[in-house]
Prior knowledge:
Elements: E1 3-7, H1 15-27, E2 33-37, H2 39-49, H3 54-60, H4 71-77, H5 83-86, H6 101-106, E3 110-117, E4 123-126, H7 137-142, E5 152-154, E6 157-161, H8 170-175, E7 180-184, H9 196-205, H10 210-235, E8 239-242, H11 257-270, H12 273-278
Parallel strand pairs: 1-2, 1-7, 2-3, 7-8
Antiparallel strand pairs: 3-4, 3-6, 5-6
Helix pairs in contact: 1-2, 1-11, 9-10
Amino acid sequence: xxxxxxxxxxxxxxxxxxxxxxxxxxxxxxxxxxxxxxxxxxxxxxxxxxxxxxxxxxxxxxxxxxxxxxxxxxxxxxxxxxxxxxxxxxxxxxxxxxxxxxxxxxxxxxxxxxxxxxxxxxxxxxxxxxxxxxxxxxxxxxxxxxxxxxxxxxxxxxxxxxxxxxxxxxxxxxxxxxxxxxxxxxxxxxxxxxxxxxxxxxxxxxxxxxxxxxxxxxxxxxxxxxxxxxxxxxxxxxxxxxxxxxxxxxxxxxxxxxxxxxxxxxxxxxxxxxxxxxxxxxxxxxxx
Length: 288
């Protein structure tokens, strides 16, 4: 039985997934396969390294720093989110909150990070082989929101957010042989995502990156299709969808400490259902 964890991210709404994964650490739940998109990829890294509470600090402390995100950053550098600060400084050995790289790499689970090639539009599934100590450009690529961030270049290829090409990678988990899937969303699961904002944003990048713009216009449809597939698997007993009943006012770039706390709490509470779903399929031997 191969168990999968999928965290789709969602900017600052990713704090919900942080609560879910902290609960998983408390319960001793271990997955065989983990795939993260955007902020979900960062969430999973701390889960794999066993650093409970680390993601919490990223949302409740660092995201309120001017270096992390803001209009001034956007005007000065063309990046609303300062990915060089978020993933190029904070998690490094000299940064404020180092990722336990050795522990992350030693975890037995397969680890996939989703990104989208800006020029070709193709999906890229990064693996552990693409990481090195203090080199976390993969996270930058997966979290690079079009227009609000410049594309992230890795080995001569430019990347945008993984959500453009595979926002809810349920089919990818099935293709890789997973039998049971835990899907963590950061919106209520019955919401049908609209493409209105994406269509508008696509106009700003279409001239330079037409394939990325095409992906952006298709993102809502792909998201809805991915959730629909998960719902079908849920009916068959092969998946469970962990999602908030509301987002507490948190959005991709909008937050307050009170709203973040509420959404984190929902994730921590909702994550308890994972143990019942997986039963003994994803538990550390000797732990309840």
